[in-house]
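Please produce the structure of this protein holding flavin mononucleotide.
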Amino acid sequence: MPKDLSNYRRVYQRGELDENSVPENPIELFRDWFVEAEKEEDCIEVNAMSLSTNGLDGFPRIRVVLLKKWTWEGFIFYTNYNSEKGKAIAQNNKVSLAFFWPKLERQIKIKGLAEKLPENLSDGYFEQRPRGSQIGAWASPQSEVIPHKKFLQQGYQEFEQKFKGQEIPRPKHWGGYIVKPVEIEFWQGRPNRLHDRIRYRLLDDYSWKIERLGS
Ligand SMILES: Cc1cc2nc3c(=O)[nH]c(=O)nc-3n(C[C@H](O)[C@H](O)[C@H](O)COP(=O)(O)O)c2cc1C
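Below is the modeled complex.
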């Protein structure tokens, strides 16, 4: 049944963004916005971000992953290296990330280069995951066709048995990526669709060019 959504409309008026008062480094602004989002969005999946890759078939592919850490160098998430996204990144490591925090009427878009995290950092994160998630990383061939639902449960039981009474090692096909940004855009919704858009572009290792974009 078709549905017309043309009346779905909000007036954005929560905040403003001024290029003359933003910090020189976008990671600082990211931190400020993230902290506000944690409060305002009641922490519900506030670290969920859309990750787009250039698919092997030429189609862009997008999916949600969880941001697990950010540093001055970039944004870290974990996944299966053999997944669709893992294969896409191996071929072309240019990716984009997007956050949307509706209550704050904010979006952040990040363009960057994805690199595998050093093994010791992936090991460190894997060790602190709940045992169930550790077993899941072994049991599920992410993005591959599987014969039926029970296949995952059977795989889970198999690895649960295999690692009984032992620490579970990180599978080599599972680990982190860091997305090193080359461009970060902060979007603050404004009335009449005259939104504030401030874009940072990396000029060299340390300095960013700050520009305002039309909405
Ligand atoms: C809220 C949310 C968080 C997710 N977090 C992750 C994550 O951190 N890592 C991951 O590999 N998949 C995560 N997923 C699943 C992915 O969206 C995706 O289905 C999976 O990674 C396979 O993607 P691919 O086939 O494009 O590689 C999450 C999904 C949702 C809805």
